[in-house]
Amino acid sequence: MRTRGDIECWLTDMDGVLVHENTPIAGASELLAQWRSEGTPFLVLTNNSIFTPRDLSARLRASGLEVPESSIWTSALATADFLRSQMPGGSAFVIGEAGLTTALHEAGFIMTETTPDYVVVGETRNYSFEAITKAIRFIRGGARFIATNPDATGPSTEGVLPATGAIAALITKATGKEPYIVGKPNPMMFRSALNRIGAHSENTGMIGDRMDTDIVAGIEAGLHTVLVMTGISDQREIERYPFRPDEILGSVAELVRDEPLETELADGEDGLEAGL
């Protein structure tokens, strides 16, 4: 049976795992420092497609967490990676912001409003009825329908906001076409993340705070799954699902070892297993 001691690479969700409303969660800084000092390959994942990795790296730095942009994997990057594999040099009509348009440009896609190959819907702060109407017409005309993530709502200081999933549902209702969703809980996003860092599912762990995205996608991708209780999940939420994570922890602080790996081995203990 695979244990945490077998894990050599990590994927981790961001909000609810490392930060909460721009405040770092206890143990997050120490865990990131541990991974960096030991050369552990890792990626921070987010379904949010608004921001570029550079934006997110700056946001995390302002919260006191050091994560280079090369260690951030968004649903926008995963979507661009998927579309490049499907139709290199294709074209797209995009509803979204810089995180998505930049990723698609860098993947070699052309943004167009003339017979696009794809309609790609991502997160945005200002959904345009005109843009949604164009998307509907393009899809009815034969464009393939892609969404970066399924989240129906997002947070704001005033309350929830309609998000990608809600807008995609509106377009589906008008076209009769369901989107292909690349972000979590599609394990496609995890597989593209694994490829990004040259990792394998057998020795990679996934840390998340949501059973319905992080954990189920981690299980389906064959990863060692760790649920932390610093986000939206509580015991009642866990009991709702027929699957279970490999580990349930209070926070990522429980993944931080008291001693460096070399010290544990020098003392004759069994490496990472000593931290279990």
Automatic annotation (TrEMBL):
GO molecular-function term, one example from the UniProt record: hydrolase activity
Keywords noted in UniProt: Hydrolase
Coiled-coil intervals, chain numbering: none
Pfam family, one: Hydrolase_6
Signal peptide span: none
The UniProt record lists the keyword Hydrolase: yes
Superkingdom classification of source: Bacteria
PANTHER family: 4-NITROPHENYLPHOSPHATASE-RELATED, HALOACID DEHALOGENASE-LIKE HYDROLASE DOMAIN-CONTAINING PROTEIN 2
Entry's family note: Belongs to the HAD-like hydrolase superfamily.
NCBIfam families according to UniProt: HAD-SF-IIA
Name the record gives this protein: HAD-IIA family hydrolase
